[in-house]
Amino acid sequence: MSDSYDAVVFDLGGVLARPPDPVGRLSRAFGIEVDPVAYWDLREAYDLGLPDDSYWPAVAAAGEPGQLAEADAETWTELAADSLLLLEELYRRRTRLALLSNAPLALAAVAGRSDWAKLFERLVISAREGVAKPDPAVYQRVTALLDLPPSRIAFFDDRADNVAAARRHGWDAFVWAGVTDARVRVAV
Question: Which residues pair with 67 in a beta bridge?
Fold first, then answer.
């Protein structure tokens, strides 16, 4: 266990998983046009539970929504090798791990059956919760699930607004600066 924290909470996209060009990857995989503006502009609603049948037709020129959702989720659940090593080290040290991600239901399903899911005590996905970062309610939810004082929780996210909200809740939160920085911060 880390000397400083009882639990470490990680964001997924942009932290543990850092896929290059997810829009281009989908376009190439399906041979279709995926609108990058719509992909990102509608993502907040999708991450809060907008159905695949509403999101994907607005984002892709063609393609079956379920297949696109599955492929997109697989892209966002491929952990970077260095992140996976960090998680495994923390797990071996008996540090409790949780995932807090703004993500759609399809990603929750793919993440739940991934090999790395067993490292986490909790997978908290915004579409399942009906609330997303930086809403204070999502940090309260994770704190309650972990049953820890907020000061015993470290958090890594790639967005400063999410980090600021976590700090306001009492977590020791950091903007993701890579695995080396994270190791120092959680004393691995």
Answer: none
* CA 104 from centroid of its chain's CA atoms: 10
Residue with tokens 């809740």: 169
Q: Where are the domains of the chain?
A: 7-18+79-185, 22-76
Helix, strand, or coil here: 103? Answer: coil
Cα distance between residue 85 and residue 97, in whole Å: 13
Q: With respect to CATH, is domain 7-18+79-185 assigned 3.40.50.1010?
A: no
Q: Which residues of 153-188 are buried (b: 16+ CB within 10 A; e: fewer)?
A: bbbbbbbeebbebbeebebbbbebeebeebeebbeb
Taking the model in full, what pTM does it have? 0.95
Average pLDDT, the chain: 95
Distance of CA 151 to the CA centre of its chain: 21
Q: How far apart are CA 49 and CA 17, in angstroms?
A: 21
CA distances from 88 to 113, 119, 181 (A): 17, 7, 16
Residue 87 has pLDDT above 60, yes or no: yes
